[in-house]
Structure formats: structure tokens, C-alpha cells
């Protein structure tokens, strides 16, 4: 039941995350600076998250925890938020939203490849022992179906794009694709269940705030103040993607943080972003109707998510060993 709930929350998060790619591209088309698109989102997030956490009476424990041990908050917020969002908004300045959203799906595999960097506690005959996580091979194979689907969806669109456009639109997103799961997982590890999802999102937003203020100052010097249209669209991104999507996704990953194969399946739900982004660009930005090849890719993405969910519901090798010893 927890896996299903986490899976559904992940899908909902991918829907709200899609606003990032659609509106960032819209702002760039209308002449807005990516520096403002990136920094304003997180600056706008602070008061909303502060109100939510205050309403839950959890502000003081969070602030005390951050003051007591500030370094992890600054470091992993930089990876999880700054190196995630700044490259994505930069890429939107050079390429269409579907290319950014499609490349972003590498984060599905990135999270799994990063697993050996993390530890987990396992019950043995000698008690609890701390061991490195292993690669979740079955979810990795299932996620490959999603990546193939994304490649097919982007196949028709990528023809005619210059190498310069591909590099400036894709390489920054590849950096973001690895930084986001790294920052998220490391912060979960550092918190160790001490803070809830809302506290963790607010803490990471506050931890990254100095970087966004510096970026906003650079944006002011280079391009002047943001337009009213960019302020409005960035505000929508802050609410939909920054608050709603981030909280939903962090809640989903928190539910399965101790089970690497289920965590991989939840991270794979973010492939829904490319579907929602494609549909959003068709409706809002007059994008092209998907071809038969793209529809085939769409089918594979959906199939990959279903397979990933099924694989994650099966007991892993450690659980099987526990059951056999109990029997």
C-alpha cells in the first residue's frame, strides 16, 4: 500500500513539475532572463513554506537543527536545488521544453547509479550492520524501457537541431539529472527522519537562498528587473513546481527511503514529466502533434512505469533471505 501511495504521489509530482519546463520555455521565448526564472522561483517559495511549517509548529526545531549543523544543509541544498534548477533554466534559454524534459529523464537512471554512494542498515544474525547500497538491477532494467520511450518521443523532434543547440540544451540538464537525486538522498540521509517533508523542503530552500540572491543580483545587473509577465509565470512555477511538486515528490521518496528498489521506482515516476510537458506545449505553446513514433515512445514510458512499479513491489534479495531464515 505504501508503495502504491508513493507511486501515485510521484505521478502527481511529475504533473506539477511539468510546469517548470513549459513556463520556463515560455518566459525565454518572451525575452525573460533565465537568471530571474531560476532565482525568483526559490525566493517566492520561502514565505509559502515558512507559513506551512509555522502552521505545523515545526519552525523552531528546524532552525535549531540548521544552526546546530549548517554544513549539510548548505552543501546538499546546493546540489539538490542550485545545481538542479539553475542548469534547467539555463537550458530552457537555448532549447525547447520537450528537449529539456526529455533529457531530464536521465535522472531516473542517475538515482540508481548513485546508490553505491549511500548506506543502509541491514538486520543480520550479528545484529544491525551498516552496508553500502547495491545497484538495483531489476529497476534499472525496467527504467531502460522508459529511457527508450523518451528517445523515441524525441527522435522526430531532434532532427534539424544544431549541435550547439543540443549541447547547450542537454549537457546542463545532465548535470541537473545527477545533482537532484544526489542532493535529495544525501539530505534524507543527513536528516535521518528527524524532520518531516515540509521542514526538509524549507530547510533546503533556506540553505540554497544565498546562491539565489547572488543570482538575482547578477540578473539585475545584466538585464535589469524582471517583467511583470516573468514575475507572474515564475510565481506559478514556484507554487506548482517549487512547493506542490517538490513536497509531493519528497513525501513519496521519504516513504521508501530505506528500500532502494522502491526508491528507484518512485524516482522513475518523474518520466511522466515528458508526457505532461509535451501535452502542455501542444495546448499552451502551439507545439506539434506527436507522430506515430512519438506515440510509441509514449506507450513505452507508461509501460516502463508500470513494470517499475511491479518490480518494486516484489521482495528484494535481502527480504527473501530474511523470510527463508524465519521459515
From TrEMBL:
InterPro entries: EmrE. Keywords: Membrane, Transmembrane, Transmembrane helix. The keyword Membrane applies. The chain crosses the membrane at residues 7-27, 33-53, 73-95, 101-119, 135-155, 161-180, 201-221, 233-252, 264-285, 291-311. Pfam families: EmrE (PF13536). Signal peptide: none annotated. This is Putative multidrug resistance efflux transporter.
Amino acid at each position: 500500500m505504501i508503495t502504491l501511495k508513493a507511486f501515485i504521489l510521484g505521478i502527481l509530482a511529475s504533473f506539477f513539475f511539468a510546469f517548470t519546463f513549459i513556463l520556463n520555455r515560455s518566459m525565454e521565448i518572451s525575452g525573460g532572463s533565465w537568471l530571474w526564472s531560476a532565482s525568483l522561483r526559490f525566493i517566492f517559495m520561502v514565505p509559502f513554506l515558512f507559513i506551512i511549517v509555522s502552521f505545523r509548529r515545526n519552525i523552531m526545531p528546524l532552525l535549531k537543527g540548521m544552526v546546530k549543523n549548517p554544513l549539510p544543509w548548505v552543501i546538499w541544498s546546493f546540489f539538490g536545488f542550485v545545481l538542479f534548477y539553475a542548469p534547467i533554466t539555463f537550458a530552457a534559454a537555448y532549447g525547447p521544453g520537450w528537449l529539456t524534459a526529455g533529457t531530464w529523464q536521465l535522472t531516473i537512471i542517475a538515482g540508481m547509479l548513485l546508490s553505491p554512494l549511500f548506506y543502509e542498515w541491514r538486520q543480520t544474525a550479528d545484529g544491525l550492520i551498516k552496508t553500502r547500497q547495491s545497484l538495483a538491477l531489476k529497476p534499472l532494467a525496467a527504467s531502460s524501457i522508459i529511457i527508450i520511450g523518451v528517445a523515441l518521443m524525441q527522435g522526430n523532434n531532434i532532427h534539424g537541431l544544431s549541435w550547439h543547440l543540443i549541447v547547450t540544451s542537454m549537457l546542463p540538464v545532465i548535470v541537473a539529472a545527477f545533482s537532484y537525486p544526489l542532493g535529495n538522498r544525501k539530505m534524507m540521509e543527513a536528516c535521518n527522519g528527524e524532520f518531516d517533508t515540509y521542514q526538509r523542503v524549507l530547510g533546503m530552500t533556506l540553505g540554497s537562498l544565498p546562491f539565489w540572491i547572488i543570482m538575482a543580483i547578477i540578473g539585475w545587473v545584466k538585464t535589469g528587473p524582471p517583467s511583470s509577465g516573468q514575475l507572474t509565470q515564475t510565481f506559478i512555477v514556484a507554487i506548482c513546481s517549487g512547493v506542490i511538486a517538490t513536497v509531493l515528490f519528497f513525501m513519496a521518496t521519504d516513504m521508501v527511503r530505506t528500500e532502494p528498489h522502491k526508491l528507484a521506482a518512485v524516482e522513475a515516476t518523474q518520466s511522466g514529466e515528458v508526457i505532461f510537458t509535451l501535452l502542455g506545449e501542444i495546448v499552451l505553446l502551439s507545439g506539434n502533434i506527436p507522430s506515430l513514433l512519438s506515440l510509441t515512445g509514449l506507450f513505452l514510458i507508461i509501460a516502463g512505469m508500470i513494470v517499475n512499479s511491479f518490480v518494486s513491489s516484489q521482495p528484494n534479495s535481502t527480504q527473501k533471505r530474511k523470510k527463508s531464515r524465519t521459515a
